[in-house]
Here is the input.
Amino acid sequence: MTPRERVLTAFAHEQPDRVPRWCGASAEFWAKAKRDLALDDEALRVRVGDDFRRVHAQYAGPAFPLRRAEATCRTIFGIERAGLGYGQPLEHPLAGATIRQVHDYPWPDPAWMDVSKIRGQALSFGRQYAILGGDWSPFWHDAIDLLGMENLYMKMYDEPRLVDAVMGHMVDYYAAVSERVFDAAGGAIDIFFIGNDLGSQTGPLLGPGLFGRFILPHLRRLIDLGHAYGLKVQLHCCGGFRPLIPALIDAGLDALHAVQPCCAGMDLRALKADFGESLVFNGAIDSHHVLIDGTPQSVRRDVRKVLEVMMPGGGYVAGASHDTILEETPTENVLAMFDAIGEFGRYQAG
Here is the structure.
């Protein structure tokens, strides 16, 4: 099988020749691994056996100089951030806004994203790999930036229409960008990949009631958009969010990434038994206690245990339990993970 055929077979809940492999890594780890192995980007992906490739639209809108000296970046919704990595918001501009002020906020224009190179990027891989595309669409995170987290929770009770307005404007933007991406791709994308972290170490960040009222309708809109273009839809979601999974299945979600087994409610055996016929699970190999703290030998043992639980019947993609493998992760442990997936992740023919 080609990597693309392998992935699409797994997404059809059938058994391919072997479990597909997924490699998501931080820029810092990726640079370190390329140095350690003396490989370029594509050669490194081939070395780990990654069955996916990803294409992105590029920002081509107006330049917005940072207003604060301490700011290190600016989001598409005008939030300046600072701190380690992606940082934290320096302001919450809609914290005290009225609904009128929400509507009058300078929301971004989807045309600012240049999609002209999308199809060429996707086709450059010769249709050998499963292609991920579409806007990441992290509207839950953006709402926290715009309103402040505690304030957002209170407004869900006190001013639900205002929360609806904020969410609606953001998802209007994200949906329009993804439509432009999919139109430009002309069928060269396989999977619409979106991301919103709805869980913590100890459980969901909001209960099924608030999730169903404020978040799920917008996720459903994005899922329906992907399906309208004939795409599978995969959601990245960190943490322990098991109580929300039935609603995600009802909304038509195809796959969940990255499945953190160390979080509350995310026991792999239970997830596979309860939801494995409805959802593809992507990830599940502990990127903290196993990949960072382990050895190549212990990584190999843990990978085998995870595969024994998750691979039967298809519907599983193997990889780390977080999309961005961190810089402190030993390169040799990551190689051991992918090599073990290749060795132990083969299905019996016929």
Remarks:
- The chain is about 45% helix and 15% strand.
- The mean pLDDT is 97.
- Residues 3-344 form a domain with the TIM Barrel fold (CATH 3.20.20.210).
